[in-house]
Each structure stands twice: as C-alpha cells, then as structure tokens.
Amino acid sequence: MSVSASAPVIPVTRTSSPRPRPAEDALGFGKHFADHMLVVDYVEGQGWLDARIVPYGALALDPAASVLHYGQAMFEGLKAYRQADGRIALFRPDRNAHRMATGAGRLSIPAIDEQLFVQGIAQLVNVDADWVPSAPGTALYIRPTIIATEPFLGVRASKTYTFFVITGPVGAYYAGGLKPVRIWVEKERVRAVKGGIGAAKAAANYVASLQVAEEARARGCDQVLWLDAIGHEYVEEVGTMNLCLVIDGTLVTPPLGGSILPGITRETVLTMARDFGLPVEERLVSITEVREAHASGRLQEVFGVGTAAVVSVVGTLASDEGDMVINGGNPGPIANRLYDAITRIQYGLDPDPRGWRVII
Asked: Which of 16, 29, 79, 114 has the least C-beta neighbours within 10 A?
C-alpha cells in the first residue's frame, strides 16, 4: 500500500546546516540522527495541535516538567527500508500507531491520532529520504516518543505533552547470518507484573531492566530471560523482545496477559508461521517445562523477535542450575525461515499479499 496523497501536509522548516552522512558500513545502532524531526504538542481541552517538521535539535523542558518527576513517557520503534527498486517503505506502521494509542491510556497520556502518527512519520521520512541507507540489511530507524511537559510538582497526570519523532540510519543487525546469543535466566528481579504497565511501551519498563542486563553481561551473557513476577516460573520476554520456542515442531509463545508487550514482529511471526503450516500455540510455558523439553531433546529452538533484530536466536540459556545449549548452539530452520521471509518483504524482495509495506 502507499500513504494517501490527500493527507494534510505538515509544514516543514528545513535545516540550514545539514549533517554529514555516515558511512553505511559503520552505522551501528542509535549513534547517528537525521536532519529533521516531527513535533506535535498537546494541550488539555485543545487536543493535539501544531504539527510541524523542524530541524533536529534540543527540546526545551522546564525543570519541573512532569516527565522528569513522575515518568509519563512512552515510545515506539519502527524502520523505513530502501526497496529493491529504490523506493522507501515502512513496515506495518499502523500497528505501531495503534499500540501507542492503546498503551497511552495506561500511562494517563492522551492518545495520538493514529492517522497523524502514520502520515507524519511518512512525511518526515520523505523529507529525510536521502538518510535511508541502501546497503544490505541497513534501514532508517524511527523513534516516536511522547513525554509529559507541564511544569508542576504534584502527583497527577500532566495537562500538556509533546509527541516527537526522530530518525537515524542503522546498520545491518546481522552482517553474516543469524548469530546465537547467550541468555541469563533471571530468577529474582522482574521486568513487569500483570496489572502494571508491561503491556505499554513505557520508558519505565526499560530502566527496570538495565541493572539485571548489566549483571547478565558480567556473567558472560548477552541478555536476560524474564520470568513472571509472582512465582518466577513462567517465561515472559527475552531482553526487550518477545519470546518464541519450538517444542516438538510447534511454535510456542507466552500469551499476552498484561505484563508482555504486544509486539508487531511477534504478531507478524505468528501470522507467517501459520502461513507456513506450522502449529502455533500461545500459552503459558514454565521454565520447568523448558528444562524438561531440553533434557528430552524436544526443545528444538529458542529465539526472540522484535523490530531491531527481527529474530534473535538463543544459543544458550544459562543459570545457576547450569547451561542449556539449544540446537547445538546454532540457528534453527524455523528461525532462519521466519527471518528470511519477513526481511524479504520489508526490503521489497518478495510479494506483500497482506499490504504490510507502506510505500512513501
């Protein structure tokens, strides 16, 4: 599909000092930012207003701004992809728009209009189109964010907010094929609890993970497998990604129950797995079941799914009880197939029967 040409045009103020473009073989992730950003303000009683695209720059915040004291902040993450024919496409931006709009209520943040979200991002990417890299596996990362801006000290929801979107080119997550990672199984600290804010993409969910992730790296691991907050028994997310397991040829993933983020890549993976004819189950999976399936040879694959990597293969689950090496520490066929199928649609190499690509 393509973005509607009849959508309102957001006014653009172009930068007078364009930034130098980084080399496409040295992009990394989150280190470089494009020339412009989208900004929209919210005032209680007036709604979202004054959408504009302006040069990338600092935001002016009062020291008493609500976000700095009470944490009303949320964000999204998606990418723009250079197509095989040179055009640029977003991948399922309507799902990001919907997730931000539905998650906002849990944080007492007014929902951003979903059409404005998609159209504004499309226009921003079009303004900075020459920032979209073309080397294999590269993309333009897009970070929409909402913060509370009212200057006051008092525990209540803010009456003013700013929605802004910044972008930046990112390198290929896997330069030479999927690389399995080592994951620490965390048995004490938790990322989120049912009834909390785990299902919203809140900034607070990520700060809660940092200390444990640092400790995991000190143990020689790349990230953390989070268990449920009540009994520390049921698997939930891996790092900042949704979790998938292949047990006896069935793709299994924990159900969305309030503590797990409803990932767009998760939704895409489940849809494509069913298209492949794979049995798919969304159900509770205990770490005890994982251990037993591994001991009996029924645990065939474990991988995370998310925007940045699409698929991140788990080669080893490490804990105080010993290591579980998955599939000999190698990527499995299902992870490989899903990664290839999704990325080929994203980059315009395969047909897109569901209209997931949005051409700019």
From this structure: 16
DSSP class of 321? T
pLDDT in tens, 32-72: 999 999 999 999 999 999 999 999 999 999 999 999 999 99
Burial group, residue 214, by CB count within 10 angstroms (0-12, 13-18, 19+): exposed
* DSSP code per residue over 233-267: -BEEEETTEEEEEEETTEEEEPPPSSSS---HHHH
Helix (H), strand (E) at residue 338? helix 333-346
Tell me the C-alpha distance between 287 and 185, whole Å: 9
Residue 202 structure tokens: 């809140």
pLDDT, residue 173, reads: 79
In the three-class reduction of DSSP (H, G, I as helix; E, B as strand; rest coil), residue 2 is classed as strand
Q: Decide: 338 and 269 in contact? Cβ < 8 Å.
A: yes
The alpha carbon dihedral of 214, 215, 220, 221 has a sign of: negative
Give φ, ψ of 46 to 5 degrees: -115, -20
> 168 φ, ψ to 5°?
-170, 145
Rounded CA separation 233/237 (Å): 13
DSSP line for 99-153 = HHHHHHGGGT-PPPPHHHHHHHHHHHHHHTGGGS--STT-EEEEEEEEEE--B--
Cα 358 to Cα 337: distance, rounded to the nearest angstrom: 23
Residue percentage of the chain with pLDDT more than 90: 94
Nearest residue to 136 (alpha-carbon basis) of 269, 24, 23: 24
Residue 178 has a pLDDT of 83
